[in-house]
Amino acid sequence: MSASISYLTTIRFGEGAVGEIDEDLGALGISRALIVADAGVVAAGLVERVTDAVPAERIAGVFDGTPSNPTQRAAEKALDLYRETGADGLIAIGGGSPIDLAKAVALMATHEGPFDSYAAVLGGIPRITAAVAPLIAVPTTAGTGSEVGRAALVTLDDGRKLGFISPHMIPNRAVCDPELTYGMPPGLTAATGMDAISHCIETYLSPRFNPPAEAIALDGLARAVASLPKAVEDGADVGARREMMIAALHGGLTFQKGLGAIHAISHPLGGLEEPSLHHGTLNAVLLPHVLRFNEAAAPGKYAAMREVVGIAPDADLAGYFEALNATIGMPKTLSEMGLPRQAIPPIVEGALKDHSVPTNPRALDAASVKALMEAAY
Ligand SMILES: [Zn+2]
């Protein structure tokens, strides 16, 4: 039996939870759902886990063309299918990309005018209304937290990677079934797990006042550092998979505090067409450097994080995460990931415009972002 938790949105959590998704469609009044996925999710048989649990007439169609980083172009294609098939709601199945793409479709299907006018940095937050189409998110990785997050990150036709942010963008339901992550390979388990850890750390360090979110972030951090090495080493470790899925959810539940420098830098890096860089891997590489940079701005919080991860009060927290990265097979540097050095200046510019900048605990400017990138290079 899956647990029912209501916090920000309604979450169905537990092994086998996806078998009960028809109840969620009914509760939201969705009679024909467009499934948004990607080729990998289809190949892994995860779309079938949903379609097997729902009467055929309730599925309008399957869009499997989500790219590794969501684009406006792909969202418009999915929107065409949504309209052609007479869909009245969406089920996103996958990691952050299909979930973010489905959020963009839910917005486009119900909001007139140019898509970029709804971007957060262009003043779009108050323009997004409750009319957003109903969406059920089914995460198949344990990392992004997008299933309970209010943002969709989308690369526009002109190359800008922008955040579309509103409480109305939070999926109306999240169905979190750890069984869907059992087949995830070690590399992706590690990368998505480090994304979850970076969410817990960055939201915890954000200066916005929100003690309940901070308590959630610390609990998520504790669970993730305890279980990620186990989940990477043995993908069939049911307990570790469950812990990682709930830790990823924790990270998403605290997005309302805002993220920081790690995400400000990894967002424009993820918008590059070449090389295509994984969001979670980028965050893993950036994390130790950003931790060193921010420490002076939040010493009390660093003490709490040392306690939570189980190291001595005078131990090096950044060094702890460098060791964790090495244990789970993450690369050490951006150059190792294939980033050319000449990509750094435009990324610094993009990072400073990111919506995560204001909630980094220490002020960011061009010199500090460049120094962080050089350190990680
Ligand atoms: Zn992230």
Automatic annotation (TrEMBL):
Keyword annotations: NAD, Oxidoreductase
GO molecular-function terms, A-Z: alcohol dehydrogenase (NAD+) activity; metal ion binding
PROSITE patterns named among the record's database cross-references: ADH_IRON_1
Protein name: Iron-containing alcohol dehydrogenase
Domain Fe-containing alcohol dehydrogenase-like C-terminal as annotated: residue spans: 189-377
Lineage, broadest ranks: Bacteria, Pseudomonadati, Pseudomonadota, Alphaproteobacteria, Hyphomicrobiales
Source organism superkingdom: Bacteria
Cofactor: Fe cation
Entry annotated with the keyword Ion transport: no
Originating organism: Microbaculum marinum
Family as reported in the entry's similarity comment: Belongs to the iron-containing alcohol dehydrogenase family.
CDD domains listed in its UniProt record: Fe-ADH-like (cd14861)
Gene3D superfamilies linked: 3.40.50.1970, Dehydroquinate synthase-like - alpha domain (1.20.1090.10)
Catalytic activity: a primary alcohol + NAD(+) = an aldehyde + NADH + H(+)
Domain Alcohol dehydrogenase iron-type/glycerol dehydrogenase GldA: 9-178
